[in-house]
Write a structure and sequence with these properties.
alpha/beta; 17 helices; binds iron/sulfur cluster; 3 domains; Rossmann fold; 41% helix; 3-methyladenine DNA Glycosylase II, Chain A, domain 3; 448 residues; TIM Barrel
Length: 448
């Protein structure tokens, strides 16, 4: 059972030294109990307290990392059932199933796609990262795993029922933390022994949640922390039910035996590609840690990545850009100067329209804690006496000495006041309200 804030507080140093970033030991204890702080933030936790607190402070869904470097996928560490309660922590790792039944050209094509599919959405790099490699023959399995590692650097899931086959394929890349798939009732001890020897995570698989929980308990008894659950759901209803019950048991009941991230294989559930995408979207929406597809058609992969990004965005923290002056289309001293807020969506909408206009321009992005133009204006953050000092300190004067500033049309009412705040030599111009009108506006501005 998780400890309460008060129980945790009793085990702390109680000096209120603030080194953990919280004003008091009690505040830290409350945040720790809520899963919003890490135990190692307090440097004064004794070994005895660590032993008592370590398990209690572990998130209800354990963290698991598969792969290394840019392609590493970290899942789990989740603490809530609904995103609005706090946030979801780690986007699921999206990947593709590669088997020894595929010809070389297909395998190479999938690995190329795995390496190449990547897109940036509101400042977040989105891409599939996982290759799930399945082969009955141990030699073929090892060869495919080596190829996937070499060609795509992917986070690798190695699929075979035989512990010896898993070991021979995983050993050469053990430092890259492949996931062994899967330990079942029949082979649990052998697969777990390989996972322990190579220090890599492993998946457990069972047809019922009761059987899965029994295997989860065995993993806990063996002191395994990096485990992934496969409830082997075979229908859309099962996916919803299994994923929800697992998350609910972990988060609401602190049921450690099911307190691990999950994996789903929409690739195995249907031959209909669109239906597979629907199943995958349910896995993404309902808690799965890894989602494995039968191919990487961008028409289905990109919406799934976009869906993940949306669900896993922290609802309490607006996505924001760094404050600064962003050059677009290689601007010079005579180029127009636009100013707007650092809400990511605002930045990307405006910058992409400026880019599309082909007019070189300076885009001054002001930090208003990630709020949009009107929200920031209403909150008193995107107003004349805040914008003027920002512009003067931004260095835009040196870059574009004409000092003509274009403000968003939605805050036309601040133009006079901003003129006064900026003082002599500056000129405030009112731009358009809709981003789609920016290209026409900039072309006219440049022609005058
Ligand atoms: S660092 Fe530790 S001792 Fe200091 S206030 Fe935080 S919890 Fe208390």
């Amino acid at each position: 059972m998780a400890l309460s804030g008060l129980q945790i507080f009793k085990l702390l140093a109680k000096t209120n030294c603030k080194e953990c970033g919280f004003p008091t030991c009690m505040a830290f204890a409350m945040q720790l109990a809520a899963g919003k702080a890490e135990l190692d933030q307090c440097p004064y936790v004794t070994d005895e307290a660590k032993a008592a607190l370590g398990e209690a402070a572990a998130p209800p869904v354990r963290k698991v990392t598969v792969g290394a470097g840019d392609m590493a996928v970290t899942v789990g560490e989740e603490t809530v059932l609904y995103r609005h309660e706090k946030r979801f922590e780690h986007m699921p790792g999206l990947g593709v199933l590669i088997t020894d039944e595929m010809d070389d050209a297909t395998v190479d094509g999938l690995l190329d796609q795995l390496k190449q599919i990547e897109f940036n959405y509101v400042g977040v790099n989105l891409r599939p990262r996982v290759a799930a490699i399945k082969a009955a023959d141990a030699g073929k399995l090892a060869a495919l795993v080596a190829k996937a590692d070499e060609k795509a650097g992917a986070a690798i899931i190695i699929m075979n029922d035989d512990a010896a086959a898993l070991k021979s394929a995983a050993e050469p890349i053990k430092d890259k933390k492949p996931l062994l798939y899967a330990a079942t009732e029949a082979n649990f001890d052998a697969v777990a022994a390989v996972a322990k020897e190579l220090n890599v995570p492993f998946a457990i698989k069972a047809d019922t949640l009761e059987a899965l929980a029994e295997l989860g308990q065995k993993a806990l008894d063996g002191d395994f922390k990096e485990v992934v659950l496969d409830p082997a759901s075979s229908s859309l209803g099962d996916v919803l039910l299994d994923q929800t019950l697992i998350r609910r048991a972990a988060v609401k009941k602190t049921f450690r035996a099911l307190g691990f991230p999950t994996i789903g294989f929409p690739s195995n559930m249907t031959d209909d590609k669109m239906l597979e995408a629907v199943y995958a979207s349910v896995f993404v929406a309902k808690y799965a840690g890894f989602v494995i597809l039968s191919d990487l058609d961008p028409a289905r992969v990109l919406p799934l990545l976009y869906l993940s990004q949306n669900i896993y965005t922290d609802p309490q923290r607006p996505m924001q850009m760094d404050q600064g002056v962003y050059p677009i289309n290689d601007p010079g001293p005579d180029s127009p100067i636009l100013v707007t807020t650092n809400f990511s969506l605002t930045y990307f909408t405006v910058s992409s329209e400026v880019e599309a206009s082909k007019v070189p321009a300076w885009l001054c992005i002001m930090d208003v804690e990630g709020q949009s133009v009107l929200t920031a204006w209403a909150a008193g953050k995107f107003v004349a006496d805040a914008i003027a000092p920002f512009l003067k300190k931004s260095g835009i004067e040196e870059k574009a000495p004409h000092k003509k500033i274009i403000i968003p049309g939605y805050v036309a009412q601040i133009s006079g006041e901003l003129d006064e705040e900026l003082g002599e030599g500056w000129e405030v111009q009112v731009g358009v309200r809709e981003a789609a009108d920016i290209p026409k506006f900039l072309r006219q501005w440049s022609a005058n």
